[in-house]
Amino acid sequence: MLIIGSDSRQGQGDGFGDPDEETAVLNDVNLLLHISEDHSHAEVVSFPRDMLIDIPTGCTDPDSGEELWEQYGVKINSVLDYGGMPCVVKTVENLTGLTIPFAGTVQFMGAAAISEAVGGVEVCVAEPIEDVHTDLFLEAGTHELAGLEALQFLRTRYGVGDGSDLGRISNQQVFMSALARELQSDGTLTDPLKLYSIAKAALDNMQLSSTLGDPTKLVSIAKAATDIDLAKIAFVQYPTGYVDDFAAVVPTEAAEAINLALQEDRPMLLDPTANADKDFASAGTSEPTEAPAEPAEPEPSTDASAEPTESAAPEPTAEALSGEVSGQTAAETRCSAGRTLADQ
């Protein structure tokens, strides 16, 4: 499922700039949720908004319906305006080699409303966050965030990490991992009434693909994650490197390991030291996550009369990612690396 965060100001009220002046419709947040076929692991992959990609053929103009030309080497956050939500899906499919059947787009106030519906999220802040651009000011410590304050936390860039979009992604992973822990610990994922309430909030506040037209589909997706071990829910930043003028990023060779793990439905094993040397990363020491144990080989039967049986297909093993790939699991409590005005 591809979740797209749009920065369109249309219909968002005061506080986000003048919609007549800020007319861009940019998909600044692009999250790919993958739940394994056997529901034993899940991954959420974040694609940096300034990543250069190719837009494939098959996209149509959202207004006229006319077929659009393919594009090469454009920023991924320009795709929503170019070809709408279906084109963003096609572009990520082209990048990863996947088929993505579900998608949804959410604007600012929609994200705030959904955070209210889940009951708020408690996050850890290592150093104070000071961001005049989103009007977010948080002292070091733990904070329960919901509504507008949760939205500000998800949007802040200048107030965290190195002030880049990569730092914002790391900050969003702090929020999402805390959300996963809370949804499991408070029983939300096993409570039909709570799930339907959240699903209705999504339906009311998101533009969803036709495949997500009723709340039961959203509830079934949520229930698929009910029993997944938190250590096997990985939040991964798609690996990129800066171009020469630092105005954009491009996928690195390590991105192919992400693509293959997704295509082959294998869990991703993050390097516990991966965040240590990255200025944009969240704060705190991540505990190592052990790879799933290899299944033991069955002992050969000594019963000559035993009927031969078909051997089961081997379970997919974890993809050990290089130290270039940053992220965290839902089992890890990391803290936002706050950034004060003096550091900006």
TrEMBL record:
PANTHER family, per the entry: POLYISOPRENYL-TEICHOIC ACID--PEPTIDOGLYCAN TEICHOIC ACID TRANSFERASE TAGU
InterPro entries in the record: LytR/CpsA/Psr_CW_biosynth, LytR_CpsA_psr
Lineage: superkingdom: Bacteria
Family: Belongs to the LytR/CpsA/Psr (LCP) family.
Region (Disordered): 1-20, 271-344
Ranges for domain Cell envelope-related transcriptional attenuator: 27-184
Name of this chain's protein: Cell envelope-related transcriptional attenuator domain-containing protein
Lineage, opening ranks: Bacteria, Bacillati, Actinomycetota, Actinomycetes, Micrococcales
Segments of skewed composition (Low complexity): 283-320
NCBIfam families cross-referenced by the UniProt entry: lytR_cpsA_psr (TIGR00350)
